[in-house]
Amino acid sequence: MPSQRIVAMAKVKSLEDINNLGYNEFGDYLANVVAKTPMIPLAAWSDRPFCSVRDLHATLCKFLDQLLFQGESPFSILLLIVKDTTENEKK
Questions:
Q1: Domain count along the chain
Q2: What's the pLDDT tens digit per position in 34-65?
Q3: 3-class state of residue 10 by DSSP
Q4: Of 10, 37, 83, 90, which sits with the fewest C-beta atoms within 10 Å of its C-beta?
Q5: Distance between CA atoms of 82 and 15, rounded to whole angstroms?
Q6: Global pTM exceeds 0.85
């Protein structure tokens, strides 16, 4: 009997649902969008509400482009995101 691979899929949400997600839920839901980490989507969370999926995509790309333009190292980027995450969790 051939083995079956079960793949868990997240429930697809509407853009309105995505816009209404809390900080951590937003990061968790979009974690696989960029580099399989919630860090990049979390950086875009404060730019909600997004008017379209294209707008969400552009916001993520803009954030990544700014990091590359500024010549930030991956380690310093991680520190900035962790700091932002901690500050948002306190709110």
A1: 1
A2: 777 888 899 999 999 999 999 999 998 888 88
A3: coil
A4: 90
A5: 26
A6: no
